[in-house]
Adenosine deaminase
Amino acid sequence: MTHKTLPKIELHTHLEGCAPPAFIRGLAKEKSLDISGIFNPDGTYAYRDFDHFLQVYEAACTTLQSPQDFYRLVKAVLEESASHGVVYQETFVSPDFCGGGDLAAWRDYLAAMESAAAEAEAEHGITLKGIITCIRHFGPDAAKPTAICAVETFGDFITGFGMAGGEMVGRPGDYDYAFDMAREAGMPLTCHAGEWGGPDMVADTLRDLKVQRIGHGVNAIQDTNLVAELADNGVTLEVCPGSNVFLQATGGWSDHPIQKLRDAGVKVTVSTDDPPFFATTMTHEFDMLARTFGWGDADFNEINQTALEAAFCDDATRAKIAKRLETT
Ligand SMILES: [Zn+2]
């Protein structure tokens, strides 16, 4: 059975990481860029491990050079997401990859993304919101101009601030300046933690960066006190099971901690992270959760409602998406 048409919400995607390989190959050809080394013979992305994945990801991003490229990227990504029943998506966007962190350049990229998102909403009934992320392995100093871009463009489309990149670089507290700046501007916060780091990384992220959501967070399962704390404080985890299984951040599907976390009362949601890089889609995630843990319509409905409550959008958008979940 397939869950392709079931309505879905996903909170944890990286915009460039959603780029279909054929789209990136097309851009590279137009611009005469040779990035053939990042593809397998069958056309999929090729890499050895997580660090190499980050290098391939950044190589793919070199083809995205202008606001018009990002306009086309958003259109391609949302058409693909909508085909899997996604009615609301949040995506991480990085000013570092859009004009090198310059605020004026960033505004041009953002305008292009927003107009593409508006067109895709009219065409496919999917709403996109952006979360600006600093890149952890670029270091704390690089996070500051990113936070300025976030604060200056916080509004209808940019709805939150977060951090992605190599989790084992530095400690969460090293990035507190950027997160403090975003929080003081009223921005909701999320941060990758507990994908590669242990429960201590999740605990430090909550304590030092005061985020409402954690990207991944699955390694929290190793500390029962932390799991209880996550449940008590209503922290939402953006769980990406297919990504974890593919990158071997956790064991296989049957060993994945999403069910145990949910049983312990932790708010869990389901997302694809970087779907074409990890050979997944939202349909595949739902299908595997149904097959592995016996999840049915009631479970998926609960997951959607948890995601809707944790979404960083305004309440008018939340009400609109709630209707889409009822009537789709
Ligand atoms: Zn991620």
Remarks:
- The longest strand covers residues 127-135.
- The mean pLDDT is 95.
